[in-house]
């Protein structure tokens, strides 16, 4: 799992971030160094350690399933980059 | 000048009707006009709205409202640009949010308002709270009030600089790996990261959800306790907030720390620790001993793994959290022929270099084939780091460390080397991984010839141990005069 197999173009696409050729080159080198630094963790034996997802253990926080007041429609749409008739406008998805 | 007062001094004078909320707010606005052109702590500010809130507070006082009921009545408080304030812009120091205006208040902001505070201004920060210098803001950098050639720390650099330069009475920031404590140390103010779950994160734009907490920047420890009283508590809108009773943190500031046991972690005396920082912390340790606390060496054996663990977990969570900025429902948009092209172009144009770096890093460590090697392994090391602290807290009541290895560094000094920048957080990140609380307070200055720079002392407390931690911080502060010093720009 060496950092050398890190393909910045492929991962940037997974992350849905367009990069310029310059950015690809610079980020590729920097992230290679950073991943090299992460290899430090491989020196520890963690085979018998449980993973921590949250520092304060919480399980299944629930609430009663009741209707509550929410943002008015026009307030929720207020920051939309493009809208018509109270709907978000997006590029065509289906052919 | 009223803008120089602490919360406790200002509210005393407001309660006696010696001054009005309008005068206090105007004093902050005047100071901002005078110095913020050089410091740039604020991204934006609505002076008319601030004064209208001040007038409302003055009217409320005429109608019988008191600071006994509303502890921040008439106090101007500014917030980091990552917290939602209804009707105000919210940018997270990024271009990607465009002209976004918050449709609601964050819970912490709602609580400030309910306590009577005048909530004003948008404070500068590293984009999406990713950084340690406030150089990663799309709105330009913030300068350290003690030396304008240096960074104020980050990511809450605007919040720290505004308090240090008396542009606000207090501010709010957020801390994911040290983003409150590190800038507080570098700007010479008090900054506290609460225990995970102590303060609701509702309305805080998420960076790394298992690490983020909101906390105050203040001019002294008593103000810090007052702010924590106001913003703490369970919130049904944040399922990770904890239903633990909130004590009166100011009542715990007795000045008596006799018999308390403090731990000095041997792993924090690293090579990169500046001799002047070490000397200041050593002197603080002696001071605490003279106040009756006992100090013993402790061990946090997994300290050296904390930075690598943090820079896997935080970017992993960030890559998921920041997926919502896609140009569809809010914020800026760069059009494309199909949604995929629209996402890639919007995010490519909207995010700055550090945010891209972390999103890509986070996506990689979560991707198929690498998840076990990086993310899962980091979560397991996180367990070891947390266990180190819980074990140490069986032995001691609080832990003392330097907040940062050095005083404020120069603008541009680390901006081309992300790994070096990451390592400037080495003393603060473990606290977030372990979910415990931490506070930074002034403990001295460098002897720098051009301009002396503040040095921060960090105290780390048990989970929900803010009361004891603040009592120690307060006892130390009151026996020294570091917190009374002001940068030259304020004179």
What does this structure look like?
The complex is a heterodimer of chains A (95) and B (491). With 95 residues, chain A is mainly alpha-helical. Chain A has a domain at 1-42: Histone, subunit A. Chain A is built from 3 helices and 2 strands, in the order αααββ. In chain A, strands 1-2 form a two-stranded antiparallel sheet. In chain A, β1 and β2 form a beta hairpin. The longest helix of chain A is centred in the first third of the chain and has 18 residues, at 21-38. In chain A, 17% of the residues are buried. The model of chain A has no long low-confidence stretch (mean pLDDT 90). Chain B is an alpha/beta fold and 491 residues long. Chain B has one domain (2-263, 392-490): Amidase signature (AS) enzymes, CATH 3.90.1300. Chain B is built from 15 helices and 11 strands. In chain B, strands 1-3-2-4-6-5-10-11-9-7-8 form an 11-stranded mixed β-sheet. In chain B, α4 (107-114) links the parallel β2 and β3 (118-123). In chain B, α2 runs antiparallel to α3 (47-62), α5 packs parallel to α6 (181-187) and α9 packs across α11 (353-366). The longest helix of chain B has 24 residues, at 372-395. Chain B is globular and about 65 Å long. At the A-B interface, α1 and α2 of A face α9, α10, α11, α12 and α13 of B.
């Amino acid at each position: 799992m060496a950092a050398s197999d890190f393909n910045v173009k492929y991962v940037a696409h997974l992350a849905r971030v367009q990069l310029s050729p310059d950015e690809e080159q610079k980020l590729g080198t920097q992230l290679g160094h950073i991943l090299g630094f992460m290899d430090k963790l491989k020196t520890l034996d963690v085979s018998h350690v449980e993973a921590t997802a949250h520092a304060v253990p919480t399980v299944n926080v629930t609430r009663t399933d009741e209707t509550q007041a929410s943002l008015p429609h026009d307030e929720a749409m207020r920051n939309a980059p493009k809208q018509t008739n109270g709907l978000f406008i997006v590029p065509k998805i289906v052919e | 000048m009223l803008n120089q007062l602490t919360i406790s001094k200002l509210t005393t004078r407001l309660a006696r009707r010696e001054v009005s909320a309008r005068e206090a707010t105007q004093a902050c606005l005047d100071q901002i006009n005078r110095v913020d052109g050089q410091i740039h702590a604020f991204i934006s500010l609505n002076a008319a709205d601030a004064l209208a809130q001040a007038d409302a507070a003055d009217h409320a006082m005429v109608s019988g409202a008191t600071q006994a009921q509303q502890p921040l009545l008439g106090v101007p408080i500014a917030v980091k640009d990552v917290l939602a304030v209804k009707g105000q812009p919210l940018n997270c120091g990024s271009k990607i949010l465009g002209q976004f205006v918050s449709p609601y208040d964050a819970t912490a902001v709602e609580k400030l308002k309910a306590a009577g505070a005048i909530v004003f201004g948008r404070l500068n920060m590293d984009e999406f709270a990713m950084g340690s210098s406030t150089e990663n803001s799309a709105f330009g950098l913030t300068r350290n009030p003690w030396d304008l050639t240096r960074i104020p720390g980050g990511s809450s650099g605007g919040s720290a600089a505004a308090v240090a330069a008396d542009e606000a009475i207090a501010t709010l920031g957020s801390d994911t790996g040290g983003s409150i404590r590190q800038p507080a140390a570098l700007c010479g103010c008090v900054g506290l990261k609460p225990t995970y779950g102590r303060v609701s994160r509702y309305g805080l734009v998420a960076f790394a959800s298992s690490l983020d907490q909101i906390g105050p920047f203040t001019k002294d420890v008593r103000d810090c306790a007052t702010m924590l009283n106001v913003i703490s508590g369970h919130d049904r809108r944040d399922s990770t907030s904890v239903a633990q009773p909130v004590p009166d943190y100011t009542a715990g500031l007795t000045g008596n720390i006799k018999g308390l046991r403090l731990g000095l972690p041997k792993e924090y005396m690293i090579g990169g620790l500046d001799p002047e920082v070490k000397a200041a912390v050593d002197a603080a340790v002696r001071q605490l001993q003279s106040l009756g606390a006992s100090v013993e060496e402790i061990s946090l054996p997994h300290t050296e793994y904390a930075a690598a663990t943090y820079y896997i977990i935080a970017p992993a969570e960030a890559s998921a959290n920041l997926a919502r900025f896609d140009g569809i429902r809010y914020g800026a948009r760069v059009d494309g022929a199909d949604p995929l092209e629209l996402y890639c172009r919007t995010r490519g144009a909207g995010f700055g270099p550090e945010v891209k770096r972390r999103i890509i890093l986070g996506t990689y460590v979560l991707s198929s084939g690498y998840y076990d090697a990086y993310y899962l392994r980091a979560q397991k090391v996180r367990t070891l780091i947390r266990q180190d602290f819980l074990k140490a807290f069986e032995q001691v009541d609080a832990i003392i460390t330097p907040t940062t290895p050095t005083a404020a560094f120069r603008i541009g000094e680390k901006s081309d080397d992300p790994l070096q920048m990451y390592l400037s957080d080495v003393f603060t990140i473990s606290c977030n991984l372990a979910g415990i609380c931490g506070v930074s307070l002034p403990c001295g200055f460098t002897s720098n010839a051009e301009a002396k720079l503040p040095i921060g002392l960090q105290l780390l407390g048990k989970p929900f141990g803010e009361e004891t931690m603040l009592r120690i911080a307060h006892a130390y502060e009151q026996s020294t005069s570091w917190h009374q010093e002001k940068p030259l720009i304020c004179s």
